């Protein structure tokens, strides 16, 4: 729970989360406050990682401060500011409840704060902080290609910091690690989770990609790169195999007659990603249009790639819902890892590029709409 006019990006879940001051990493505003109440499951304790605490210096941190309180034990941590920083980047508490209080008076400078937390069940907290090539709570550099595991808190997608690369080739090692994990589709931002990766030899050029609501940057040569490894599905030996679609079906299709009187059928079968020329399109003016894929048998579906129709037409889908069925009659909307409401997937912004979205958890079904 958070309250106050000084709260910035905040995502709090029972097992992990990320919080920041307003405008972070820009200068935080004058005369603001925010109070976050962190509540972990009973029987666990909270670990807090200080990604950045940059509050203007003042005696006893009187002008701006970060204060943490453990109501169960009566313990207080802080106040913290630029001249009184936390003694360690990771604070291990003995409580399942912690109150985080940030306030400011008049000041001239300071990025504010960025804090992540997880429960004692996930001690290997990962890089949720921006901008730094090394993070105080990162594991030491392993030898090249050796796998290691890091826990990424929820809420890393919208923190400040860049990523370079894509899921297939890996990411420049200066990328914000947990933000790259969301882009790669190995965790859902609203839940966080354990990620397995390796540091491998860098490559000459990292290509940009749009995936899971994030656009990575095009990056130059680096000495090392980050490669994420998916824990592969029980029902498939390889998670990234392209599934064969037996039949395409659609709510409608566009029968186009061009200026020369020539016919062009934008039928459902043209929706296959490898199709050259024009794609599928619903009948103009159709509402609640849908495209249906029959996979022939029940399959484990871990994601989807979409692309627009670039031949003569600048057509593409900007957002969409997904439903699945095991029998083609009873349909279940996909709600993602949160399970609260139907998930809206971010689609394409132009007709040329491909956009990837990962299903976490995967869909087990024969039919996808």
Automatic annotation (TrEMBL):
GO molecular function: signaling receptor activity
Gene Ontology annotations for the cellular component aspect, listed alphabetically: plasma membrane
InterPro entries the UniProt entry points to: CUB_dom (IPR000859), FA58C (IPR000421), Galactose-bd-like_sf (IPR008979), LCCL (IPR004043), LCCL_sf (IPR036609), Neuropilin_MCO_CoagFactor (IPR050633), Sperma_CUB_dom_sf (IPR035914)
Gene3D superfamilies: Galactose-binding domain-like (2.60.120.260), LCCL-like domain (2.170.130.20), Spermadhesin, CUB domain (2.60.120.290)
CUB domain sequence ranges: 7-120
Domain F5/8 type C: 233-369
The entry's keywords: Disulfide bond, Membrane, Phosphoprotein, Transmembrane, Transmembrane helix
Topology of this chain in the membrane: Single-pass type I membrane protein
Cell compartment(s), UniProt: Membrane
Pfam hit, one: F5_F8_type_C
Superkingdom of the organism of origin: Eukaryota
Disulfide bonds: 7-34
LCCL domain mapped to chain residues: 150-226
Name of the protein: DCBD1 protein
């Amino acid at each position: 729970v958070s309250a106050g006019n000084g709260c910035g990006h905040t995502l709090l879940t029972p097992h992990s989360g990320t919080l920041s001051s307003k405008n972070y990493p820009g200068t935080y505003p004058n005369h603001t406050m925010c109070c976050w109440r962190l509540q972990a499951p009973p029987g666990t304790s909270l670990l807090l990682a200080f990604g950045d605490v940059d509050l203007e210096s003042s005696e006893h941190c009187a002008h701006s401060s970060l204060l943490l309180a453990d109501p169960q034990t009566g313990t207080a941590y802080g106040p913290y500011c630029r001249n009184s920083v936390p003694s360690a980047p990771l604070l291990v508490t003995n409580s399942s409840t912690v109150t985080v209080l940030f306030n400011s008076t008049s000041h001239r400078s300071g990025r504010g704060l960025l804090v992540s937390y997880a429960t004692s069940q996930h001690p290997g907290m990962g890089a949720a902080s921006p901008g730094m090539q090394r993070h105080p709570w990162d594991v030491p550099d392993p030898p090249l290609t050796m796998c290691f595991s890091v826990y990424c808190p929820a809420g890393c997608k919208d923190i400040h910091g860049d990523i370079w690369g894509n899921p297939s080739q890996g990411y420049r090692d200066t990328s914000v690690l947990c933000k790259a994990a969301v882009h790669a589709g190995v965790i859902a931002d609203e839940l966080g989770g354990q990620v397995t990766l390796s540091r491998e030899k860098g490559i000459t050029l990292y290509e940009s990609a749009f995936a899971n609501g994030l656009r990575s940057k095009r990056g130059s040569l680096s000495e090392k790169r980050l490669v994420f490894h998916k824990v592969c599905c029980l029902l498939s030996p390889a998670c990234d195999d392209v599934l064969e679609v037996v039949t395409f079906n659609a709510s409608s299709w566009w029968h186009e007659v061009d200026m020369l009187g020539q016919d062009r059928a934008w039928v459902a079968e043209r929706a296959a990603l490898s199709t050259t020329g024009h794609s599928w399109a619903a009948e103009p003016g159709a509402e609640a249009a849908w495209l249906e894929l029959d996979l022939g048998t029940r399959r484990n579906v871990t994601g989807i790639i979409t692309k627009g129709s670039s031949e003569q037409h600048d057509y593409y889908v900007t957002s969409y819902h997904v439903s699945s069925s095991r029998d083609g009659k009873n349909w279940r909307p996909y709600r993602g890892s949160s399970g609260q409401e139907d998930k809206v997937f971010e689609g394409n912004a132009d007709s040329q590029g491909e956009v990837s979205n990962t299903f976490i958890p995967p869909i087990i079904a024969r039919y996808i709409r």
